Write the structure tokens for this entry.
Amino acid sequence: MTKQNKKDLCKILVAAALFVLGNLVSAGEAVRFAFFFAAFLVAGGGVLLNAVRNIRYGQIFDEEFLMTVATIGAFCIGEYPEGAAVMLFFQVGELFQSYAVNKSRRSISELMNIRPDFANVETDGEIKKSDPYDVKIGDIIVINPGERIPLDSVVVQGTSSLDTSALTGESVPRDVEGGSEILSGCININGVIRARVTKEYGDSTVNRILDLVENASNKKSKSEKFITRFARWYTPAVCGVALALAVIPSLITGEWGVWVYRALSFLVVSCPCALVISVPLSFFGGLGGASRQGVLIKGSNYLEALAAVDTVVFDKTGTLTEGRFRVIEVNGDKSICNIAALAETASSHPIAQCIKEYASGADTSRVSDIKEQAGFGVQCTIDGKEVLVGNRRLMEHNGVAVSAEEKAGTVVHIAQDRVYLGNMVIADTLKKDSVAAVKKLKSIGVKRTVMLTGDVEEIGEKIAAEAGVDKAVCNLLPQEKVQQLEKILAQKTDKAKVCYVGDGINDAPVLARADIGIAMGALGSDAAIEAADVVIMNDEMGKIATAVNISKKTLRIVKQNIVFAIGVKLFVLLLVAAGHASMWSAVFADVGVAVIAILNAIRALNTKNM
């Protein structure tokens, strides 16, 4: 509880004590009035001042105006307990609201704590503590154990483990060493590391994330916009109805006290605070709950849209798959792996790197006369024998018969002295959680899944089938991915949304075009943070379903609050107008409903990973 909350609670307790004394004393009407009026001023003094201030600035019809008119009116007609009680319970509702907002903000502020305070810059062997804003690209910084990494960097010396939980929600530390990329906002756990800065603070991961979170509340959902418009017209309308209720029947019956009392009760009931508070608070809680799970959503509008997703389109490489080549099959004697690794000694091609990693430790002095033929493979001499390592075309060009069938993946053939030895199948493999993630999406109502890839059909369809994706569209250039997404968007129904999930490095155009763009594990990608509407801060595919689930839960809470608040208020308004409900009922219909709606809204913060 904040200091302000504690002050407000003290005011409420003092006002409550005065209210109780006013009900207990029997020393005369003047004394009772004094106790109730004192309780009224202690509880509602700030409300009265705000109402007067708002009227001066032309903001007349708000909840504080309604409370002021209703309570002063109650005192004027001699209903002192009701007048004091309305203001007292109104403040109780405000305290609940403040507590709920602070609880929601704490989940966001935990993320705000990733902002670094300083950077240890090393210059000519001396270390100077500097503001992160003043550090330049290429500067060497020293990060000691327990310190937060101030800027995106590359480790040049030292090894350590990093706590990345503030950014990714991942509790397992990540080990780093020379050459490892490290992101600002993470905490160095145990080793001293020196790193070369790769981005200035304004472009760093931590600053981009903070900007994203701070601006998220500016993008309102349709529900929030509706409530804002509703309150703008609703409040003046109920004031007019209350005035009519006080005047017209009184002129007919002459019972001014009865009808003014009913009109004042009508004003108390009609206060729209339950809706005005609980709906934005629900979305704010949903955004905070998502951030706890390592999912950054750029605004309430995107949180709301996620609930309507019925088609999810995936990129392949780096999204459904690891994005790294691996040897998945060896056909032939195991010695062909060493032969292939030796032949690829001088090559920097990703497939060559994959082969060398698979068969590391070979004696490179055995290989000579290496000739790399672009688009074919490598020809060299190993232990005096001619070796060919490459694709089918290289084999056929050199008169080597290839008997093996082509498989899904990149097949690297190996021949020695024009005799075929066998092949290695190299492919990008599925992430461990891709299959489970696709199943989760379908279990929560996603009707269709599609994969777009630049790979050949054989590989693309194999990956799609393994992941459980409904359809694969292959052989696509980057601009053709946008065209395919346009076709998918054209097929959807009006209310349905299409979500595109990519790794954020080369998917910016598609991420931007989709109804909702989700960037996977792309904290270090400028393109992802700029183009995506949702950024999943680690590489867990299951977080997509978590984000959709949080959205649906938040929307359910919003709808519950709207229906409950409007339903109870309308019912009590009719009872008040008919004379079957007192101002005490009005207090419940206002403050009671607001408190219940706020407590319901807090549930949006409590989210679980799927």
Remarks:
- Residues 343 and 380 are 6 Å apart (CA to CA).
